[in-house]
Amino acid sequence: MTDIERLDSDPAAWQARAESLLEPEQVYWLSLSMDERLAALGDIFRDFQLMGGSLDPDPDPQSPFWSREELEAFARTQGAALQTKE
Amino acid sequence: MTGLPSAILTVIETFAQSGVRCLLMGGQACWIHGSGQGSKDVDFAVLAEPSNIEQLHTVLTSLEAENIAVPPLDQEFLDAGLAVHFRCRRQDAAGIRVDVMSKMRGVDSFEDLWQRRAIARLSTGLEVNLLSLRDLIRAKKTQRDKDWPMISLLVSGHYLKNGNDPGPGDPIFWLEELRDAEFLREAVLRFPAAAQEAASRRAPVAVALASSSVEDIRRSLRDEEEAERAADRAYWEPLKKQLEELRRRKHD
User: Fold this and answer.
1) Bigger pLDDT: A26 or A47?
2) Could you report the per-residue pLDDT of B208-227, keeping only the tens digit for each?
């Protein structure tokens, strides 16, 4: 039986392949329905904020929405933050 | 779980309850469609017509959302294809960035997107409308490095989850959008008739039909990606000039 024939006849092979190729968290996330993922979004971002995560967008020089001035201002902010820590 | 509300979900719920014709897209839509990763802001495609924009103003006001950067919220700028950016100040949504757009390169009209929309439901029964997976992937074909791994994750994830039991249209979707060379080669072998059809529209499929070399398919996928990125850069050139002019006027 070829690999393709095995895949076409064995549902368990697909699950095993997902588990071998993806991180466990991704396998779990894929197993959820869209409704479950929507509900879980709340937990993810709440926990992220409780752990001190910032909701400020990561600067993206490739994004057409970020101006050169905004990128430079962000870089200055990061530089100041590093100096404060040192 | 702490039982505390989530600011991100508060924003999504507020929009869903507002009656604004909008479709969740961007990073949050990627999470819901199964990517396992996303972004920290909330992006919506919105219908750009006066009464809907008025309702949009109302929901943004309710979130105490401050317009940041340029442009302001106006149909002119939405019709041009620009994104309008906000930051929420209301306590239960504080700090959440909201971006709205109504026109995106390579993406159909809002009405078509709406007809094909996906719907996710909270336990309260509240429905959240979002871009379909196929439309989300089209919207993500940009010039940015970060969007292409996301496309790959979404399509490969869909293939791994549904590959054993494809729905109607799934084989063509995979052949048209898979970005993993080995999965694409596999899909060509598993669905030969659909592959013949897709090959006329997509070079990596034609390469996969002609060659068993994964490296040949990878090369074709890279070329395809670079062509999309170049098209996106060209599309945004006049829009970036418009943004620069708006920033200049704002500072004057």
Assistant:
1) A26
2) 999 989 999 999 999 999 99
ipTM above 0.95, yes or no: no
Distance from the Cα of A63 to chain B's closest Cα (Å) equals 7
B214 interfaces chain A, CB cutoff of 8 Å: no
The 3-class secondary structure across chain B, one letter per residue, is CCCCCCHHHHHHHHHHHHCCCEEEEHHHHHHHHCCCCCCCCEEEEECCCHHHHHHHHHHHHHCCEEEECCCCCCHHHHHHCCCEEEEECCHHHCCCEEEEECCCCCCCCHHHHHHCCEEEECCCCCEEEECCHHHHHHHCCCCCCCHHHHHHHHHHHHHHHHCCCCCCCHHHHHHHHCCCHHHHHHHHHHCHHHHHHHHCCCHHHHHHHHCCCHHHHHHHHHHHHHHHHHHHHHHHHHHHHHHHHHHHHHHC
B69, A42: Cβ pair inside 8 Å? Answer: no
* pLDDT for B4: 52
Least confident of B184-188, B206-210, B247-251: B247-251
Among residues 75-104 of chain B, which lie with CB inside 8 Å of chain A?
A: 83, 85, 95-97, 99
pTM to 2 decimal places: 0.92
Q: Any CB–CB contact under 8 A between A16 and chain B?
A: no
Q: Which residue from A14, A31, A63 is facing B164, i.e. has the nearest CB?
A: A14
From the list B9, B12, B83, the residue facing A65 with the nearest CB is: B83
